[in-house]
Model the fold of this input.
Amino acid sequence: MEVIFSRILTLKMTININQIRSSRMYTDLLRNALYVSVFCLFSSTLSHAQVTTYPIQGNAVLQNFHKANPAYQFQGNLKSKFGKRDTLELPFFDDFSESNLYPDSTKWLNNQVYINNHFPIQPPTLNVATFDVLDANGIPYRGTINKDLSTFGDSLVSQPINLKDSVGVPYTLSDSIILSFFYQPNGNGYHLNSEDSLRLSFKAEDSTWVQVWSVAGQLNSADFAQVLIPIKDVKFLHKGFQFAFSTHTRQVGNANHWHVDYVVLDENRSVTIDWYNDYAIQSTPSSLLKNYYTMPYEHFKVNPVSETAPTVTFRASNLLNIGKNILVRHEATSGGNTLVSTNFIDNSNNVLAQSSAERTLPIFNFANLSGSKPVITHTVSVQENGVANDYKENDNITVQLEFEDYYAYDDGSAERGFGFDQNTNPSNIEGQIALGFNVLKQERLYAIATYFNEAVFDVSARRFRYRIWKNLAGVDGAAADELIYESELQVPDYNSANGERTFSAHYLDTNLILSPGTYYIGWWQPEIFNLNVGWDMNFGNTQNPNRPNPMLYFNTFDIWSNSGVPDGTLMMRPHFGDSVGIYLGVPEQQVNNKQIKVYPNPASSIVHLTAEFAQVSLYTMSGVLLKSEQNKTSLAVNDVAEGLYYLRLVNEKGELFTSKIVIIAP
Done:
């Protein structure tokens, strides 16, 4: 830019200014100067984060669970004997390692919190209780999102605990009964601020609740911190004592997270003793695959050495005040056959006091399994030279590797939503997102699967096109984009097929055979907004999950970049092989007859067909029938809301065809 302006200044000194203004040279110089100025402006914009993650509206895991188990009821309020509530005795302990989705109903009265291990960062032990602004069904409280409303969020209330007497001897304050726990703000959840708080209350003998501790929220995540609260008032020493964690927060759905772990209530304790005779597994073991969370097994077998992880890694924690030499072992089976079974292995280095460390295990061969979609069941365990610890339940974990017909970096859990940051980008420019995969075997790509989040900001009617590229300009030396597929205009498909919240499938309408090599799947959007596609913060439990996916690129102003991409990975998957029904809400047998066409697509008033069909039906993506007509060559859609739908066609022979149709406002 300085060269251009210097050149203009020099010309002004040697040429009559009127001659310059009337000349083509002047016009060209100004155009060049303007181009450089605009380019510098765009480069400045690119230097800031153009893509970002946002909180998601609900909890799909809990929603799936309730759809699959409609008769489920949490039994916490029913824990009684002969109509009289049965109280617990000291000690009270829960590190949530034995719970799944919901807290243990023998210890807790309610189930508003979410038990998981993907939202916290390095908890004391595997699994925590996550507090958000969602009810027990994973739905926003009061069924709405309102970031300007501060109100109560989740709570976790203990069962009644006997603090009146032990073996007939009354408790006194000198028995030094202390409640302790660990907590973390944010973790992999979305940001708290000073308006948000985590609180602890005790229930007195007169049934009143007394707040005894609280902490304000903060923007950034922090390590887990331990809190020890001694009982100093006799009004809490009664047979029906309870304690409760609660949050006060803005009503923003699956965000504003607090994580609580390792809750202990016991006598004869000291606030200066904050350690425990316990070691435990802290994280889910890394994937057995080097580059993906899962992939097609026939593709894996093309080069199993390059696709097998060098080792299995996970983190182990030590809650004692001295270092421990924690040994590790693992075993794996598939189809009833043992793939590996080791003795406990010495990793040499101690795990420091009240700390955690990565542990490693040798990889094993799984290149000769039977079937096209084998499953490996893998168990990891920890031990300290045969020395027992106080809590053995958190000393092992079992996971599965399921080979599928798709490549996936993600583990299927969306901690956030991903897309363009509409707050820092001009809204009237185009944008593209591309996620690269190294395809190992020549095979037909028949579908792209995308996990769409229901977002705080509604983008259900915003349009985009799926795209597939062989090359991206400027990436790995490519001179230009090589686009090999583009879809019709689409809108997000929030799929809940087969009773479960899941990925949405876009079936390609062309026979696309991919030779081995790198390809990119993604989308183009005509203006900047956050499409809120699923974002896996843990990067599919890879060996190094705290990093951005190096194969993810974004494009604005015709420049591909992966600078500023957040840690984690996008939840999009390419499906290979023979076309099968995946993630579907209605039977899918796509229009594959070249003589059958549905047009226009998108449509705003009427959809035309190239032949008369005995029945023409329109379904929502979740399988709800909206309208159906007989013996038609067209279907009026002017009374249908904008969105993505299925058009179901039945001809006179009874043959069934379906096609996706986008409906837009006229």
